[in-house]
Amino acid sequence: MSETATILLVDDEPGVRESVQAYLEYSGDLKVDVASNATEAWEQLEKAIPDLIISDVMMPQINGYQFLEKLRNDLRFQAIPVVFLTARGMTSDRIQGYHTGCDAYLSKPFDPEELEAIVKNLLERRKVNIQANSESAKLEEIAQEIRELKEKLGQQPHLITTPPPMKIDLTPREQSVLDLVAEGLMNKEIAARLNTSVRNVEKYVSRLFSKTGTNSRTELVRFALKHGLTE
User: Fold this and answer.
1) Which of 33, 72, 161, 184 is the most exposed place for a label (fewest CB within 10 A)?
2) Cα separation of 103 and 87, whole Å?
3) Domain holding 37: CATH number?
4) Average pLDDT over residues 96-116
5) d(CA 27, CA 34)
6) What is the Cα–Cα distance from 63 to 50, expressed in whole angstroms?
7) What is the pLDDT at residue 160?
8) Strand arrangement of the beta sheet that strand 52-56 belongs to
9) b/e burial code for range 33-63 (CB count within 10 A of at least 16 → b)
10) DSSP state of 16
11) Least confident residue range of 11-15, 108-112, 197-201, 206-210
12) Which of 18-22, 48-52, 116-120, 223-227 has the lowest mean pLDDT?
């Protein structure tokens, strides 16, 4: 992990807080903030959102289950991975934890190496999910722009000056890729539709950029629509 991830550790035992904090921060790629109870943890959450939470279950006033339920009911904190640490290792306790929404459950005493492995695995999954969501949002923006462009061209044909025919020789496969790009599909979806590899699709898209003198998918679709290369 190249970037430092922030962890919030919630436990009413000072010894646990100190030992877990020291162990996880030893490698240098994790920063651990601590809280002695759920109320104190919530105050810290209001100031800064961590990448992951490690929480004891058996705590006074507000236990770990109640704390986690509150987290999962708040849109700001719903996606934060949560690891439970507890002296109660009964199957029923673990089932309750998972039903409440925890991502991992370790019974005390636990192996700190196992805790570190779980933490880093959950952080990596969170990073992948964030990247996937970001990519999905970008794809939707591109698809929406393409839909708006098609609608604009369809509603205002009298404002469009038909350019002189351009001779652009496209292979059947390049034409298929262009048509699917115009539908708003991305490389993985196009590869699945055409039963080919993503790398091959990337090559076809690159050739289309070169043949049309465009630099982005939106420019490519705009060019194709303008010159009648796709519907």
Assistant:
1) 161
2) 17
3) 3.40.50.2300
4) 85
5) 18
6) 20
7) 47
8) 30-35, 5-10, 52-56, 82-86, 104-107
9) bbbbbbeebbeebeeeebbbbbbbbbbeebb
10) H
11) 108-112
12) 223-227
Looking at residue 47, its amino acid is K
pLDDT at 37 over 90: yes
Residue 99: Cβ-neighbour burial (10 angstroms; 0-12, 13-18, 19+)? exposed
Q: Decide if 200 contacts 188 (C-beta within 8 A).
A: no
If one compares 208 and 141, the residue with the highest pLDDT of the two is 208
Is residue 144 in a domain?
A: no
Distance CA 128, CA 15 (A): 33
Give the global pTM.
0.56
DSSP characters over 23-71 = HHHTTSSEEEEEESSHHHHHHHHHH---SEEEEESS-SSS-HHHHHHHH
* Nearest by Cα to 74 from 53, 95, 104, 88: 53
Query: What's the residue count for the chain?
Result: 231
**23: Cα separation from own chain's centroid:** 28
Note whether 126 and 178 are same-domain residues. Answer: no
β-pair type (30-35, 5-10): parallel
Residue 94's domain comprises 5-130
pLDDT at position 109, please?
A: 82
